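Intended use. Records like the one below are meant for learning the mapping from a protein sequence to its folded structure. Do not use them to infer anything beyond what is encoded.
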Amino acid sequence: MKDSSRRGFMGKAFGGVAAVGAVASLFAMKKSWDPLPSVKAAGFTTLDMSAYNENELVTEKWRGKPIFVLKYTADMIAKLDEKQKGRTIVVGSDHYMVNLGLCTHLGCIPSYDNAEKTFLCACHGGMYDFTGDVTKAPPPRGLDIPPFKIDGNALVLGEEGPEYKKMKETGVTL
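Structure written out for the chain above:
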């Protein structure tokens, strides 16, 4: 009788120590799999939209990828059709194009022509209008719009705000 109760106690003690060890191991593994704070911080980029000039393409960087930012002129805004208005980001009273600067065909970086207000991908001759929508194939879709959130006069890249979610629902971006 004494042996079985001692044996039962030892089994329970061993089981308790093993359970605590397993929980501690799982906690340590989860902590090692989480991204570093520096990586999390690199996932968000805040752009001050008042710093951009009309019809002047500026290339920013987000998560190591080029981001094209183009502030529309009054003439460009007047020429927008309904499809193009869906790709436009409005911050305050200004209209912008904010797109990933990679061609959706093979990932080349298109160049912007200020006079023509078009993008040309030199790799295979694909063309985009000033909103980033395809005007000449082979690109399968317009330039992708990165996740964004409008915060006052700033645009936070990497965070999905209501404007971005609406674009995603309507099929403007992936």
